[in-house]
């Protein structure tokens, strides 16, 4: 029924759906949540990245939804699959010496924009507020308070 529908990509790889159906050898009758999870575990064991696993899971979900709509599957086993989240790393930050070096650079001129940039950098470093919190500050807000607490953290 599906023979020849998916051609290898230019790099010689086949689509996730083709590799899934080749693994099953049972046709659509063997396509259930347990088989899908086993297939994904094999993909993970093969060393595929989390992003690739997430894409393949999305592909299989789309395929099983299509097969269910066409009446080839009595239910949609892809609905019960979890999704591998792509790894997200924290952004790099300056160490104390690097931050001090940035703050020690004198403004290029006495233009208000240069002085404002220097003040923003010092305020960010000294208070630890987020950029969004700094942007939300209004100069006209409650000038009588000597110290300010961030209301967002």
Automatic annotation (TrEMBL):
Keywords for the protein's UniProt record, in alphabetical order: DNA integration, DNA recombination, DNA-binding
PROSITE patterns attached to this UniProt entry: TYR_RECOMBINASE
The keyword Metal-binding belongs to this UniProt entry's keyword annotation: no
Gene3D superfamilies named in the record: 1.10.150.130, Intergrase catalytic core
Pfam annotation, one family: Phage_integrase
InterPro entries in the record: DNA_brk_join_enz (IPR011010), Integrase-like_cat_sf (IPR013762), Integrase_catalytic (IPR002104), Integrase_recombinase_N (IPR010998), Integrase_SAM-like_N (IPR004107)
SUPFAM superfamilies: DNA breaking-rejoining enzymes
Tyr recombinase domain segment(s): 89-153
Keyword tRNA-binding: no
Domain of life: Bacteria
Protein name according to UniProt: Site-specific recombinase XerD
């Amino acid at each position: 029924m599906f023979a020849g529908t998916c051609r290898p990509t230019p790099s010689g790889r086949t689509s996730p759906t083709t590799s899934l159906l080749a693994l099953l050898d049972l046709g659509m009758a063997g396509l259930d949540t347990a088989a899908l999870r086993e297939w994904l575990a094999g993909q993970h064991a093969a060393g595929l990245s989390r992003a690739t696993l997430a894409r393949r899971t999305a592909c299989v979900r789309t395929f099983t939804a299509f097969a269910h709509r066409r009446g080839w599957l009595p239910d949609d086993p892809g609905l019960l699959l979890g999704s591998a989240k792509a790894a997200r790393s924290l952004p790099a930050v300056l160490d104390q010496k690097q931050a001090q070096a940035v703050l020690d650079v004198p403004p290029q001129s006495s233009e208000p924009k240069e002085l404002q940039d220097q003040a923003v950098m010092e305020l960010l470093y000294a208070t630890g507020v987020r950029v969004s919190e700094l942007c939300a500050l209004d100069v006209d807000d409650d000038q009588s308070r000597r110290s300010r607490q961030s209301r967002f953290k």
